[in-house]
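We were asked to recover a plausible sequence for a given structure. The inputs and outputs are reproduced exactly as logged, with field labels preserved.

PROBLEM: sequence recovery
POSITIONS: 296
GIVEN STRUCTURE:
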């Protein structure tokens, strides 16, 4: 890690080309695997696999996961191709950093993690650091959590947690699982060895009724019985749904057309502004095309 600052960050294309070389060598070394024969016979598949592996390795690096741990997902009776995949990833994890280092390069993910860990180590050794504020991170990356720990160990260290639900009841908080939006926050607090009760609210969050409704909708199964106690909250639910509209579209094209019409009507109204927030990239592209036709 000490040598990281002297290394240049490798372009994504360089990493994929190196992965192609490593992939080619692996297929020659392990011809008994069916996947090796398939890759060797299809250059197009090899190129596509190199890109996918590069992205997957980034995720493993970010989460500090050893590829050999993946074998536990399949149990003791892992299929032959599962063994091949895990073996290949372990091979790449060893070969790629060495190949990059020999060229004076390092992956962007590895460089970023090293910078965060070095900064965390610096905070632990410095006596006068001044105010340290880390805000806006959920701490899902191990290197970021290490930095947060070091900051909290400082006398003037603060961590501002985005979206932590301080009003969720204790039983529901204890039952929060991986599928719940608060799971990352729960994991982070456990990693930082901090109880949720120690977290102070920086400023009152807006839309209290809407937040209450979302909290009730996403209750863990273990505490769904609390819904019966919420049956008398019809007025609160109506307040939470105020200014929300549901529009059912027959297909994606109609959905994009409707959103584009709403955007156009708002833009044409003086003093108003509008934004579209969607995780659906296909929908976003359709909307962009439609408002482009209207010169919006």
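RECOVERED SEQUENCE:
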């Amino acid at each position: 890690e000490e040598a990281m600052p002297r290394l240049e960050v490798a372009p994504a294309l360089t990493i994929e080309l190196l992965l192609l070389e490593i992939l080619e060598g692996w297929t020659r070394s392990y011809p008994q695997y069916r996947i090796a024969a398939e890759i060797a016979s299809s250059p197009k598949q090899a190129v596509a696999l190199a890109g996918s592996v590069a992205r997957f390795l980034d995720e493993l690096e970010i989460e500090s996961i050893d590829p050999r741990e993946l074998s536990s997902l399949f149990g003791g009776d892992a299929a032959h191709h599962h063994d091949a995949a895990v073996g290949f990833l372990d091979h790449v994890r060893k070969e790629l950093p060495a190949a990059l280092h020999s060229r004076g390069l390092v992956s962007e993910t590895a460089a970023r993690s090293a910078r965060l860990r070095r900064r965390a180590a610096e905070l632990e050794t410095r006596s006068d650091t001044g105010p340290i504020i880390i805000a806006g991170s959920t701490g899902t990356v191990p290197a970021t959590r290490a930095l947060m720990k070091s900051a909290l160990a400082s006398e003037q260290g603060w961590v501002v947690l985005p979206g932590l639900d301080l009003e969720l009841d204790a039983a529901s908080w204890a039952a929060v699982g991986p599928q719940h939006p608060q799971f990352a926050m729960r994991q982070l607090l456990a990693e930082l060895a901090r109880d949720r009760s120690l977290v102070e609210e920086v400023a009152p969050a807006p839309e209290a009724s809407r937040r209450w409704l979302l909290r009730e909708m996403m209750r863990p199964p273990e505490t769904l019985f609390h819904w019966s106690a919420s049956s008398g909250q019809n007025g609160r639910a109506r307040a939470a749904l105020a200014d929300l509209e549901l529009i059912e579209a027959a297909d994606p094209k109609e959905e994009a057309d409707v959103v584009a019409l709403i955007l156009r009507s708002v833009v044409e109204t003086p003093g108003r502004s509008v934004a579209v927030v969607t995780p659906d990239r296909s929908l976003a592209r359709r909307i962009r095309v439609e408002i482009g036709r209207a010169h919006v």
